[in-house]
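Please describe our next protein:
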Amino acid sequence: MTTTITLSWGDRPIALEAEDGKTFLRIGSNLRVDVTDASVDQLDRLADVAADLADHQRDRYRAADVADQVAAEDGIRFAGVPIQRGPVAA
């Protein structure tokens, strides 16, 4: 059985923390992941996934900008690209 936890952290800080000889990845104020024993391959994969997410978000921003520019040329004040959000744990 797999358990999935979904968190939304927006622009809250992401940082590394060290405590009692362990290393943690802190995401926002409520999530801390122990990465003490993570392999270099896993950490590289985490970096790759984060880079992919950043590229995806840039593409979404560009799509929204294009939609706004086209709308402005047509005399419409604002037309955005809808964002689909899934359920988020509180």
